[in-house]
Specification:
Radius of gyration: 19 Å
Order of helices and strands: HHHHHHHHH
Distance between the termini: 60 Å
Strand content: under 5%
Number of helices: 9
Largest sheet: none
Shape: elongated
CATH topology of the largest domain: Serine Threonine Protein Phosphatase 5, Tetratricopeptide repeat
CATH architecture of the largest domain: Alpha Horseshoe
Structural class: mainly alpha
Number of domains: 2
Oligomer: single chain
Length: 182
């Protein structure tokens, strides 16, 4: 009975997702029905696991991931945040929360999470790219510049040409941003 109710609630949410214009939902009407069904089944499974083991950060993360895939950003963010309460160093959850906030246009919140991620992984090229992009959208050019300078310093000590090239490209991006937003 409980699973039936959960399934009906999830189907209702998916139906509403296709009809609403909220920035907190994404239209998934083009998603194949089989894929929707797989995500809905996973949501049910993860809810059951969390009901049994409320401290399972992996189940929380996976639940949030499936909510995000179903276009339910508000639920996804809520569960990603619960994941981070259970596992403060969960870098993928931080990245996903930042990405959702960026997608809905809340750049201040996106910047908060991307900065946390950057503090944990400053030498990862994808992290610095996301950091610079989000910080510029948030209007934090000084923080973007500082993060880039730190990344460039790491790149020079590691002697990585790829990292140096990324730093150079991102430097140009910051200069362009500053020139276009004077």
């Amino acid at each position: 009975m409980k699973k039936t109710i959960l399934t009906m609630v999830c189907i209702g949410l998916i139906t509403l997702t296709g009809c609403t214009g909220s920035k907190w939902t994404k239209d998934i009407s083009a998603m194949p029905e089989e894929q929707k069904a797989q995500h809905l089944a996973a949501v049910e499974e993860k809810l059951t696991i969390i009901d049994e083991v409320p401290t399972d950060s992996g189940a929380h993360f996976e639940l949030a991931f499936h909510y995000e895939a179903l276009g339910e950003y508000k639920d996804a963010v809520k569960i990603y945040k619960q994941t981070l309460e259970l596992d403060p160093g969960h870098i993928v959850a931080m990245n996903n929360v930042a990405g959702i906030y960026e997608e809905v246009g809340d750049y201040e919140e996106a910047a908060m999470y991307i900065k946390r991620l950057y503090e944990l992984r400053p030498a990862i090229p994808e992290v610095i790219k996301d950091t610079i992009r989000i910080l510029l959208k948030a209007g934090e050019t000084e923080n973007a510049q500082a993060a880039l300078e730190n990344f460039a310093s790491i790149a020079s000590t590691q002697g990585s040409q790829e990292m140096n090239d990324i730093a150079s490209d991102l430097f140009k991006e910051i200069v362009d941003y500053k020139n276009n937003n004077k």
